[in-house]
Amino acid sequence: MTTRPIWEEKPTIAGQTSKTAVITVVLAIIIVPIYSVVLTSFSTQTSVNIAGGLVLVPHGLTTAAYEQIFSNQLVMHSLLVSFGITIIGTAISMVVSVLCAYGLSRSRSFGHRFILMLLIVTMFFSGGLIPSFLVVAALGGYGSYWSLILPSAVSVFNILVLRAFFSSTAQELIDASKIDGAGDWRTLWAIVLPTSRPVLAVIALFYAVGYWNTFFNALLYLPDNEMWPLQMVIYTYTLQGNAMPGTGVTQTGQYFGHQAVAPLSIQMAVVTLTLIPILLVYPFVQRHFTKGILLGAIKG
Amino acid sequence: MQGKLSWRAKLRRDRSLLLMTLPALALLIVFSYVPMFGIVTAFQSYDIYSGFSASPFVGLAQFERLMTDPVFWHALENTLVLSAVQLALYFPVPIALALLLNSILSSKIRSFVQAVVYLPHFFSWVLVITIFQQMLGGAGPLNTALREHGWATWDIMTNPETFKYLVTGQAVWKEAGWGIIVFLAALAAIDQNLYEAAAADGAGKWRRLWHITLPGMRGVIVLLLVLRLGNSLTVGFEQMLIQRQAVGRDASEVLDTFTYFYGVVNNNFSYGAAAGLFKGVLSLILILIANKVAHLFGEDGLYRK
Questions:
Q1: For the segment A256-298, what is each residue's pLDDT rounded down to a tens digit?
Q2: Is pLDDT of A11 > 80?
Q3: Is some CB atom of chain A closer than 8 A to the CB atom of B230?
Q4: Which of A109, A133, A144, A159 falls 20 to 30 Å from B221 in CA-CA distance?
């Protein structure tokens, strides 16, 4: 709790009230839709019917929608694909980025300016969509999972964030370790990584979210719906309103067991599935955002 | 001492550092630099069976066709209009939010608000648009409430006329909260003694905002403005793609979707690549101009002069 500095005026009641009102509205605009989507996925058919759409006030809860999608092969497979791409992709991206960032973190090392320039050029100019597509296709990426990982495995921005951290905060430790005779690999592993946990967590979250949300690359490279990640399933069956194979979800609604499940609940259950991992990991990483981690890269 | 080393000695000394950069460089070369050479296809009539090397060259024919294609000009117009709307309606929001947040005294409330407003940045566009569709669409709570009161319903999700505002609204919902991070950092860097001195001299709240806070944020604002102007030709590709069915091609065609639909979907790779190259070169020129203007006004822009 910070206290008001002594020289600052006492806030007026009108000012205080309007500030509180604006903040409340901002919070509501973000929280209410998320709450409503999650609630709808747990709502009974009656509840959805009363609301006529997304449920704001619950009239009976059920997990029937989840029983439906957990027995649906398409959804379950896409969930598996999304997890697989996220875990493997994040691992690859982190190894490659941390190595590169550390390799560039020494201000007098051989060739680091040139390599840095090679990296930064790609932030401002690219061949564009078509040449990239043709290159990935020529390498056999069409219809293959690696096309969702390797082309987007390196984020120059993320490397710059890591580099800024390694070359400022960790620099003294690196120097000390070098004096003790440790090589670069050993210094990176034993000194730099353990002291850089917050920034590593943030960058890993950035990469993981990128892979988890991958949509366009899947649209581009995966023609077969049996290979789709979760985002493509939501796009096709929730946004475009196509009937989802194996659930018989149509606009007319349908029954599962003895309990009625609204098609909307099933759609919102799939949406909720993509939200859950983000909501689970987010609170643990979020507190590191503010520690000026990102600023270094933006300045540099 | 260090400066006297020959480059060979330096190379030997730093070989493990160089080795570490190799995996990232290899990926960038394959997926960023090779496609840059793939731009030649914009001057070809690309045939998927012949590849880059054997496809016939047609000179500037693709660009000549582009210049006379009304769909392309319409896509360019849509792109610029959307950029202008976003600049006017999106850009100030994170600044205002940052000032608001900065004025919250309780650090507990402040970190809670921060945690909430950063969150939508981590949602995919598919998710954000699904949420918008469900909340504001025909069957959503908003239109249900309007109908119950006998009022006219609001067809924002499917109306091509208001699509640019819908897209901007979605961008604000998803990214404005995240956008405050850099402004908060700039605010935190302002010397607090300035405020105290100004207050002691009788400067009120608004004068302190005008003479201390805003000048303190100016560098960051200019930097982001330069980046935004340089990115004028890139506007919400996934948003356009996902909502194309709902609002129609006319309202949602931008340069990126033009490239995608002509190039990939219609298998007209060279034509799409020409549109992509047009955009890439123009973007580069825009960012250099924006940077130059920033320098003229005595700001750093992307790099120091």
A1: 444 568 888 988 999 999 999 999 999 888 888 865 555 544 4
A2: no
A3: yes
A4: A159
Q: Which domain holds residue A205?
A: 85-223+290-299
Best of B11, B19, B21, B228 to substitute, by most chain A Cβ atoms within 10 angstroms, is B21
Closest CA to A50 of A59, A41, A42, A62: A59
Convert the pLDDT of each residue in A222-249 to its tens digit. 998 889 999 999 998 888 777 776 655 4
CATH number at residue A100: 1.10.3720.10
**Residue A29 domain flag:** no
Ranges of H-type helices in chain A? 13-41, 45-51, 64-70, 73-103, 112-124, 129-138, 156-168, 171-179, 184-187, 193-195, 197-212, 216-221, 230-234, 263-286, 293-299
User: Domains of chain B, with CATH numbers?
Assistant: 72-296 (1.10.3720.10)
Report how many domains make up chain A: 1
Is residue A247, in this structure, part of any structural domain at all?
no
Inside any domain, residue A16: no
**Residue A168 resides in a domain:** yes
On the question of pLDDT at B116 being above 90, the answer is yes
B267 at interface of A, judged by CB pairs closer than 8 A:
no
A251 pLDDT more than 50: no
What is the average pLDDT score of chain B? 89
Best mutation target among B10, B11, B101, B134 (most A Cβ atoms within 10 Å) is B134
Cα B303 to Cα B219: distance, rounded to the nearest angstrom: 12
Which chain A residues contact residue B226 at CB under 8 A?
none
